[in-house]
Write a structure and sequence with these properties.
By secondary structure, the chain is of the alpha+beta class. The chain is built from 3 helices and 3 strands, in the order H-H-H-E-E-E. 19% of the residues are buried.
């Protein structure tokens, strides 16, 4: 009875003898089908990761805005809040105080900064508890 190793060696010798080299058509089709399946699985996964990265980026920008506002309040220069938030607003991202808060009425307990971007449906705010944003929620 032949073992698998003997069979492979016999096939290899037959191919060399007859001049057959390379892969058969069926082997190539199997490889193409496997690559197609892997691509069909990977593309939706990567698309979801990109959207999640955009949302996390907005959360970080809103948190940075809240930190900048808290810094301005702590140094008793609330007039510079608009300038600080304008510096964070770039690349299509808008950062602003949420609701009816103004530089004169915002306090450490009521800081509510919202970051929005075109193409990303979500708004993220923080860190005031009743800010109304998605801050702190995990997907």
């Amino acid at each position: 009875m032949r073992t698998v190793r003997n069979y492979i060696q016999a096939e290899k010798a037959r191919r060399e003898e007859n001049g057959d080299e390379g892969f058969s058509l069926i082997e190539l089709i199997v490889v193409v089908v496997i690559l197609g399946i892997l691509a069909a699985i990977a593309i939706p996964v990567f698309t979801g990761l990109q959207q999640q990265a955009e949302e996390r980026s907005l959360q970080t920008i809103a948190a940075n805005g809240a930190t900048a506002v808290a810094s301005q309040i702590a140094t008793e220069t609330p007039d510079n809040i608009a300038t600080e938030l304008a510096q964070l607003s770039r690349d299509g991202v808008e950062v602003e105080l949420a609701g009816d808060l103004t530089a004169a009425t915002v306090t450490l307990e009521t800081i509510c900064v919202v970051a929005t971007k075109d193409g990303v449906d979500s708004q993220f705010a923080g860190p005031a508890p009743d800010c109304g944003g998605d801050e702190g929620e995990d997907d």
